[in-house]
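Usage

Read records sequentially. Each one opens with the input sequence:
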Amino acid sequence: MKKKISTLSMAYILFLVLLFLSGALSGFLSDIVYLLAFILPIFFALCFTRNEKKEKGEYLLLNREGIRLTLPLIAPTVSLVMLVAFLTSLIIFALTGETNDIDVGNSLIPALFAHALLPALLEEALFRYLPMRLLAPYSRRGAVIVSAFFFALVHHEFFSIPYAFLAGIIFMTVDLATESVIPSVIIHFINNAISVGLLVYDDNAAFAPAVYILLCVITLVSLVVIFVRRRQYLKKFSFALDRGEGVRITAEMLIFAGLSLSIAVMSLM
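and closes with the structure output:
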């Protein structure tokens, strides 16, 4: 497993380097390098596993039981992630006076594609699917920790690290419980889509309250469903969090952590 963690770490370092390069460029070339920052590490890591025996569609399909398990988790997960993001912003503003201003434009459809759908597909492939392929067969709990760790560090701003780490833990746990990456793609997209909608329609006084009220209502109903089916959820999540062999720290992991944390510190200076 140590070799696989090293491979995963190298893939993420490659991602980080290409992401920096994308930021240094401009225009269409920057967009191309940004996409390659996701595609090339995924290709690199999957090539490492090309000789391993894998079932067709492994982790890429969601059965009926997985759908029933996932649907009630969407609203509570989104609510929790958004709450942690809000509290993090408040704390950082109180300590530094910095605010997390994001410009997604004024057109909803392009913003949803660029800031909701694309990140959901690419980030889940890189930070959930790869750890499931490389680490979960040895340690499901290790896959959860490593996935959340890297996912949080890549969001190298202190505004994003806390809720990205929390989201990473939840997303991977749900994926392992359903044995599919589809649930985290769905939850990730919905979470981003709500955020995009709030930013695009920030001048509409009625939009945000309506979204929050609807989200709270769906969350409460979902929690009731989860409570009624709690034994099934406990069984599935216990399986997902099985310890296995654990996690071994590699030099690549430390390099990646150092680079990412350095950028996080610089972003507040």
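Summary fields computed downstream for this record:
- The radius of gyration is 19 Å.
- The chain is about 75% helix and 0% strand.
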